[in-house]
Amino acid sequence: MAQQDTDQQHAGVLPLDEEGYVIDTEGCAEREAAWVERGTSRPITVVGNPVLHKECRDVTDFGPDLQQLVADMFASQRTAEGVGLAANQIGVDLKVFVYDCPDDDGARHVGVVCNPKPVELPAEKRRLDDTNEGCLSVPTAYAPLARPDYAEVTGQDELGNPVKVRGTGYFARCLQHETDHLYGYLYIDRLSKRERKDALRQMAENEPRYPVVAND
């Protein structure tokens, strides 16, 4: 089978399908739990913190420090009950995000992407979905934001192996949202001035349900 051939050519953390995309829907609970067990939950940085508003540095060292960072990110994501988390959301200036996110068919996806780059999609794959979007770094605020309902990113896994990840629906939104973070953009930066102001008002009027780093 093609899957067997693909596996022999790929020494990455997750297996690949016959098109070369990671299979991130198998063993999700066990993989996420193993990361969380090794990690320490950290507070979430919020809009206004400088680390969120600039492009992060590329990951070049895939050693123990990165493994601990990823574990801490999974632990932080669970505490905050999020579906995706970028490193700068816990104050670390590195291009890595983790995810534990369902797609619109209910399939759970769990994985890690370092140095992600969005794949430019042909026009026929750019159907827009204007569902509400939220962000752990803009706690309690939500706003509709049109994004393609299919997304692909390329990058590396936590050991430095090349990976391709694709998603539909809610998971596609997650991939785009987290990649944006690592290039210095929050979802509210893609809103109109009025919508952005409203999102910040929502944030100011409510208390986050998880620990955050207060901006001075």
TrEMBL record:
<feature type="binding site">
    <location>
        <position position="181"/>
    </location>
    <ligand>
        <name>Fe cation</name>
    </ligand>
</feature>
<dbReference type="InterPro" id="IPR023635">
    <property type="entry name" value="Peptide_deformylase"/>
</dbReference>
<comment type="function">
    <text>Removes the formyl group from the N-terminal Met of newly synthesized proteins. Requires at least a dipeptide for an efficient rate of reaction. N-terminal L-methionine is a prerequisite for activity but the enzyme has broad specificity at other positions.</text>
</comment>
<dbReference type="InterPro" id="IPR036821">
    <property type="entry name" value="Peptide_deformylase_sf"/>
</dbReference>
<feature type="active site">
    <location>
        <position position="178"/>
    </location>
</feature>
<dbReference type="Pfam" id="PF01327">
    <property type="entry name" value="Pep_deformylase"/>
</dbReference>
<keyword id="KW-0408">Iron</keyword>
<feature type="binding site">
    <location>
        <position position="135"/>
    </location>
    <ligand>
        <name>Fe cation</name>
    </ligand>
</feature>
<protein>
    <recommendedName>
        <fullName>Peptide deformylase</fullName>
        <ecNumber>3.5.1.88</ecNumber>
    </recommendedName>
</protein>
<comment type="similarity">
    <text>Belongs to the polypeptide deformylase family.</text>
</comment>
<dbReference type="GO" id="GO:0042586">
    <property type="term" value="F:peptide deformylase activity"/>
</dbReference>
<keyword id="KW-0378">Hydrolase</keyword>
<keyword id="KW-0479">Metal-binding</keyword>
<feature type="binding site">
    <location>
        <position position="177"/>
    </location>
    <ligand>
        <name>Fe cation</name>
    </ligand>
</feature>
<keyword id="KW-0648">Protein biosynthesis</keyword>
